[in-house]
Amino acid sequence: MKRNAKAIVAAASGLVALVVLAYWALPQFQGSVLNLIVFACLVICPLSMLFMMRGKRSDRDKSDHQD
């Protein structure tokens, strides 16, 4: 499976632009937007690891018996 670098960059740029636009356009919610940014930074790494390792299985799951 190949990753599409252009799509990843486009999605990341879009998310950054959305957050910057929300911070600028909604001054009454700037504190909430900043809290959302901090929360997102804290959960992105563990969530990405869960999604990347979802299809992997350890050697312990395989049976030790060979036919």
Brief summary of the model shown:
With about 70 residues, the chain is an all-alpha fold. The protein has helices spanning about 5-25, 30-50.
Can you lay out the helices and strands and say which pair or pack?
Elements lengths: L4 H21 L4 H23 L15
Helix pairs in contact: 1-2
Task: Provide structural commentary.
- The chain has 67 residues and is mostly helical.
- It has a domain at 27-53.
- It is built from two helices and no strands.
- The longest helix has 23 residues, at 30-52.
- It is elongated and about 50 Å long.
- The chain starts with a helix and ends in a 15-residue tail after the last helix.
Q: Which tags fit this structure?
A:
67 residues; mainly alpha; 2 helices
Order of helices and strands: HH
Beta-strand level of the residues, as a percent range? under 5%
Structural class: mainly alpha
Shape verdict? elongated
Total count of helical runs of at least 4 residues: 2
Radius of gyration: 19 Å
Main sheet summary: none
What is the residue-mean pLDDT, rounded to a whole number?
A: 81
Gap between N and C termini: 31 Å
Indicate the low-confidence ranges by residue numbers.
none
Strands, total number: 0
Instruction: Give the helix proportion (percent range).
Output: 55-70%
